[in-house]
Structures are given as C-alpha cells and as structure tokens.
Amino acid sequence: MAQRNVEWYGLHTSIVALREMAQRNYTNGVALRQMVQRNVEWYSVCTNGVALREIAQRNVEWYSVHANSVALR
Asked: Which domain of life is it from (predicted)?
C-alpha cells in the first residue's frame, strides 16, 4: 500500500508539473502572438509612413516643376 501511495504521489506530482508547464507554454504563446501582432502593426504604420513621405515628396517635386513652368511662361 505504501508503494502504491508513493507511485500515486509521483504520478500526481508529474501531472501537476505537466499542467504548470503547459500553462507557461500557453502564456508564452499568447505573449508571442501579442508581440507579433504589435510588430505587424508597427510595420504597417512604418510602411504607411514611408508611403506618405514618398507621396509628399512627389507632390513637392510636381509642385516645383509646375511652379517653374508657370514662371517660365
């Protein structure tokens, strides 16, 4: 009987440890998913910022060319 109790305790302890490990892995998975989401959002904002800068640059160049052609007339 004592042997069975020791075996049961060992099995129970292993199950608890596995459950805690699974919980930590799940928590880490959620944290990684959130980090990836933030990185995707940052990349999107950064990409949009670059695109807006390029559009603004083209508009400035177009305005400069247009203003010069008006001045030349």
From this structure: Eukaryota
Distance between CA 20 and CA 70 in Å, rounded? 74
C-alpha 55/C-alpha 64 separation (Å) is: 14
**What's the burial of 33, exposed, middle or buried (CB within 10 Å: 0-12/13-18/19+)?**
exposed
pTM: 0.45
3-state secondary structure of 3: helix
Q: What is the DSSP letter of 73?
A: -
Residue 11: half-sphere exposure toward Cβ, Cα within 13 Å: 6
The DSSP code sequence of 16-69 is HHHHHHHHHHHHHHHHHHHHHHHHHHHHHHHHHHHHHHHHHHHHHHHHHHHHHH
